[in-house]
Amino acid sequence: MKKLFLTALFVVTFFSLSAVSASAVVNERVKVGLWYGSNALFSANLENSLGEGFEFGYFDEDREFYALGWTGETQISMTAAGDIYMNGSGAYSPDIPSGGYRFLGGWHVEVGGFRNFEEAADAAGEYGGYPAWISGEFVVRIGSYPSRGEAENDVNRYGGDGAVQSASTGVIVTVTKTDEILFEFDCGGARNLGIQPEGWRGETSTWFKGYKYAGAFEYARVTGGNINVMNVVNVEDYVKGVIPYEMNGGWPLAALEAQAVCARTFVYGNSKHTSLYGFDVCGSADCQVYHGLGSGGTGPSDQSDEAVDNTAGECLYYRGELVKDAVYHSSNGGATEDSANVFGGDPGYLRGKPDPNEAQITIPNYSYSVTYSADELTWILEQKGYSIGTVQEVYISEYTPLGNVKKVTFKGSRGSTTVSGDTCRTVFYSSTYNKSVRSMRFDINGSSAGVGGVIYASGGTLSSLSGASVISGSGTTGTLEGNSASVISSAGISTVSGGGGTVSRPSSGSSNGSFTVTGTGNGHNVGMSQYGARAMAEQGMDYRDILEFYYTDITIR
Fold first, then answer.
1. pLDDT for residue 457
2. Does residue 67 form part of some domain?
3. CA 203 to chain centre
4. Element at 237 (helix H, strand E)
5. Torsion sign over Cα 469, 470, 472, 475
6. Which of 7, 44, 234, 263 has the highest CB neighbour number within 10 Å of its CB?
7. What is the DSSP string of 302-358?
8. Domain range holding 443?
9. How many Cβ atoms are within 10 Å of 295's Cβ, its own excluded?
C-alpha cells in the first residue's frame, strides 16, 4: 500500500504574486473552467496518459493540493452521486437508458471510525465496499441500494452504523465503464473534489474530452445537479495551452511572444467567472480558447512554447497597474478602435489608431460580404428582443473618427431601434441562418465608413484636405495637395474628399428587399490585431514593438 499523504503538497513559485496584486490567480495556479453551467457534466472521465494512477483530495485556499487517498487505476470517472444508470457501452446517466443497464443506487450501509484513507481502504476490502471522505471524516460505504429499506436490511450484517444516502453535493469515483466504486467525496459544497495524476519520472498529462492537460482537475458540485469541471494548472502551462489556439503556432516568434504576453495578462486580470463558478477563466472564446497540451497532431508547437518561455512572467501594465483587459482580435480592416466606442469605458490603454500593418500581408477572408433579406433581419432582431416589425431600412447612423461603425439604425413597420458599440456587429449574428458581420468596419448597401463623408481630424472635421498633414504607414509626415486622397476603408483602398458631408443612408434595401453588408477585418477591432502582429514580426519588429503599437502608454515587465 502506498504511503498516505496527509500534508499539503507544496510547489515552487517562480515569481512573486505581489507583482500582479490584482490577480485572481493564486500561488501561480490558474483554475480554468472547461465544462460548467448549462454544460456541466453528470459524469466526466479521466485517463492518465503519462503516469501511474491518481490521487484523490482537494485544493485548499492557497490552491495547494491536499491528498486524501489514491488509486492505481489509470482510467477513472467522476459522477454525480445518487442513482446512477450505466448502459451497455459503459456510459453513466441519471436516467434509465434504453436496452440493458446496470444500476448503482444512492443508498449505502456506512461504517465509521477510521483515522485515515489506508485504514478505510483496508476495511472496505474486507466488506466489499469503498472508502469515502464525508464532511471531513473517513468512512466506509457498502453497497449501492435503490432504497433505504434495502440498505437497512444489511446494516446488522456488516455491523454498520446505519443506512445513509449519498447527498446532492457528493461525487462518486469509479473505474471507467464499470460499476466498481473507488471513492466518494462529499464536503457539503464547502470544498470540491480534486484529482491529481500520479507522475511518471516526474511528468504527467491527462486525457479529458479528447484533449491532454497538464496539472490537476477539480469537480464542483456545490448545490446539487451536474458537475462543473476545472483544470488546475500552472499559469505558464495555461498560457502554452492558449497560444496555438488563439494564434497559429507556426507564425513568427515575435508575434507569438506578443500573444503570450497578452494571454498571460488576460488571465491575471480576469475574474468575471470567479464569483459565480469559482474559477479564474473559462476555456472558450468567451475568455481565451484553451485546450491544454492539445489532441493528436494539434496543440502547442516548439515555437509557441518557446514564445511563452521567452516572456515568462511578463505582463502589460498601465500607469503602474496590471492591465485588466488585454483584448485582441484577428484583424481590424484598417484601424483599431477606442474601447469606449465598442465596449464602453475608457481604460486609457485601449485607444484606436490607423493600422498600416495588415496591408503588408495577405490575410485570408479579409474582405467579406453578407446579404440579409428583410424577413431574416426581422426574425433575428425579434430573437434578440427588438420588436420593430418588418425591417424596412438599415443604415449606419454614426461612424467613429477612425471610420469604424459606431451606431446602426434599424427601421421597421412598428418602430425603430439604434444599436451601438460591439452590438453593431453582434446583432447581425444568427446561427440559424449561419450569417454574421465579422468586424466593426463595414458598409450597408453602399453607406461607407469615412468615404465621401465627413473627414475627421483631431478636435473636429476638415472642410478641405488641401494643406492637411498626414502620417504615412512608415511614420513619415507629408502634406496633401488638392481636395481628395486615398485611404484604407472598410471597402479597401478608397478615395475621400474634404467637406462637411453626411453619412450616406440608403432609404431601404435593394429592390428585392435585401440588405448587403460589406466589410473588412474580423473581430471587435479593440487592442492587438493578431494579423497585424504577424505583419510587424515579418518586418523584423520584436514583440515589444508590437505591443507598444497596439496598446497605448503601456509598459511590459
1. 42
2. no
3. 26
4. helix 235-240
5. positive
6. 263
7. HHHHHHHHHTTT--EEETTEE-S---EESB-TTB---HHHHTSS--SS----B--SG
8. 367-520
9. 13
**Residue 395: enclosing H or E segment and its boundaries?**
strand 391-399
549 within some domain: no
Q: What is the mean pLDDT of residues 434-442?
A: 97
- State residue 477's pLDDT score: 52
Identify the residue whose cell numbers are 490575410.
363
Q: How confident is the model at residue 87 (pLDDT cuts 50, 70, 90)?
A: very high
Q: How far apart are CA 221 and CA 198, in angstroms?
A: 24
> What's the pLDDT score for residue 446?
56
pLDDT at 510: 54
SS3 readout for 495-512? EEECCCCCCCCCCCCCCC
Whether 115 is in a domain gets the answer no
In a domain, 388, yes or no: yes
Residue 346 sits at φ, ψ, to 5 deg, of -140, 80
Cβ-in-10-Å burial (0-12, 13-18, 19+) of 399 comes to: buried
- For 96: left if phi > 0, alpha if psi spans -120 to 50, otherwise beta; the answer is beta
Mean pLDDT of 319-330: 95
Q: pTM for this structure?
A: 0.83
How far apart, in Å, do the first and last CA atoms of the chain sit? 48
**Domains held by the chain: number:** 1
Amino acid residing at 275: S
